[in-house]
Amino acid sequence: MIELTSASATAFVAQAVSVFDVGDGFVVPLLLKLVFILAMFFVVPILGGYLEHKVMGRMQDRRGPVEAGPFGSLQLVADGIKFIQKEDVIPRAADPWVFAMAPGVALVPVLLVLLVIPIGPGVFALDLELGLFYALAISSISTLGILMGGWASANKFSLLGGLRAAGQLIAYELPLILAAAAVALQAGTLSLVGIVEAQATFLIPGTDINLWYLFPQLLGFGIFFLAAMAELARPPFDMPIADSELVFGYMTEYTGIKFAMFLLTEYAGMIVMGGLIAVLYLGGWQLLPGVPLPGCEGAGGIFDCGWQGQLLGVAVTLGKMMLIVFLFVWARVTYPRLREDQLQRMAWLVLVPLALLNLAVITVAKVVF
Amino acid sequence: MAIDPHASPSSRTDPTLAAMKAGFDDDLFVEGADWETVVDAVEDETLTVNMGPQHPSTHGVLRLVLELDGETVTHLRPIVGYLHTGIEKNAEFRTWVQGTTFFTRMDYLAPLFNEAAFSLGVEKLLGIEVPERAQAVRVILMEFNRIASHLVWLATGGMELGSTTVMEFGFREREHILDLFESQSGLRMNHAYIRPGGIAQDTTDDFEARCEALLTLLTERLYDYEDLLTKNPIWNHRLRDVGHITAERCYALGVTGPLLRAAGVPWDLRKAEPYCGYEQYDFEVPTETAGDCYARFLVRLEEMRQSMRIIRQALDTLPGGPVMVADKRIAWPSQQSLGTDGIGNDPAYIRHIMGESMEALINHFKLVTQGFTVPAGQVYSPVESPRGELGYAITSAGTNKPYRVHVREPSFVNLQAANEMTRDHLVADVIVVVASLDPVMGGVDR
Question: Which of B101, B206, B242, B265 is least buried, going by the fewest C-beta atoms within 10 A?
Fold first, then answer.
């Protein structure tokens, strides 16, 4: 049984070719991939941010941005331009090098995670065999940037914010990884493309009904979603920022473009987490469980697609990402902020045991079926 | 012997202070010293954080010096005075009627209560009885003001807990109430509408219809807050068992208002010492026994309901008649009317004083420039403001200006409890506790 699974995974890895690998050259695919990643990095977070502005506005009986661009869609672009124009202030007592590096250290890992997230059939930059491992490992480096910012600012509020961030991210890394491990276990691969394929071919034992991992791993999905929200320090888990307590936490002393980089980290982080959730639990670019995309062949009808299938696949993944962003925003609008100790208690006493239970159940199920 | 300027304040001895301190918690007293020395005097193991006066959640310019052990608060010192306006002193140089325009700016979230308390005190000194209609209108507007103030408390409190939705909702409803105030007094805030002798002008024709519409709207919206917050798990986690204070400590510290009622004491001046005809209305004084922030939330929510009950009864029994005392020596002479360019002096009245009656002109001139005189005496007039007992201690020397007005401000007194309520709590709880105290710095500093 186990041999069968790994054989299918290996077979599949051979066919997972990126659409950007055109011709035999080195330079053209590399440039294409760079363009793709940067587009993902700058455009999709703005989409997510716009969605947040508008959804939050509607939920709170407001209109959200309306002035900048059609229906206010360029508000974040305008904000970005404004940030660039701002004076770059470095506090006299700050450690200038660490202070200046911190936003970059926080931002770059998010960019790197985008490398491995597949958003359509063949639409990815890199299909690592250890994709999931890579994504989770790299994304935790962001914490280091936050801690650096908090430490180097020479501000007590920043320091408290940085320490809170460190404590929070350590606590929530564990349930996040345990939940992701259950997915990897069920899929039998760590490759993100492999996980999408495994979902497209996963049948309820004894039937031929195809299902996404959302359903067998509903508990794991909940844990991953909560932990992702805490990882991103999104309200109601935004204690590292907690504007009413710590002014703006580790970002208190930051101005201009550096502040914008921290903000972009948050929005891009939402997109990355949305992408990971889409890939791990929502069947990646699959439109509906068991329904092949138009013009596609391959396992579950989601590979070797024509351009229509590829476009539709990308749209589907983006839609799923935005759905997750919508859920993030919904939680933000509904709930006040938790307290730091309550957050830690929830991680260690609720989420970690539940994640272990989830892992155990999936393991047993994997062996039995 | 020279006094060491760097010595910690507690090392100085002052016999008078020592006598005052006997039997009290040491932390309540601050001896005159530069605050910098207090900040520096803390040992190295703890972190001193200066929260405010410029801080997102200190309700204006409240400064809190926190001593933190990790994130646990070991000591909180509220420092006030950053919004000192000198209103009490200023009032000594203004006529009695002009006084209202100053006092209304103190607790800017409850302007009508300041006006009413001052006017009631002046009326007591004058020994006059205000017409029934004016009293009823005062009650209606004060209760609306109480709701508006509680809505701001809910909005800012929610904002400080990171719930921007509550903030939007609270201010949204408050805006409707301010619209009503604007329609009656011409101003959204700082109305100077309630004056010694009655109210500035009669209500508009659509006053009752407006109030009814507002009551319907607010009844509906209050359910929204309950749905969103009362059972919200995080809201419960954050507020329950935070900032606990017992009734005994409330007595010792002089804490009044929703804080005292949340500790189980049904003390409400509207019941205890009715004014403005509150004894005619049937309402309850909501209490809770827990004495924590959640209990205060429930008390304030219920108080809004009870306020609406009072307004409903006052509207049903709203009497007709004048809104200012008949005594021409006190009643503000000017009449207003709506012209093509807005509200201004009534042309008929101007015709009367300018063309018909010399005596009327003299009376107008004397009252407007010099004002009326108030018999010498002292009076203390308390009202139940949204934050607790708001009392005006007024001394008149028999002239056209107050000799001294001292205000017992509930925000100021209640703030004393902040240290006790936050001890051994986390920094995050400080925010919750200060929000539940609902201090308005305009009132604290005066």
Answer: B206
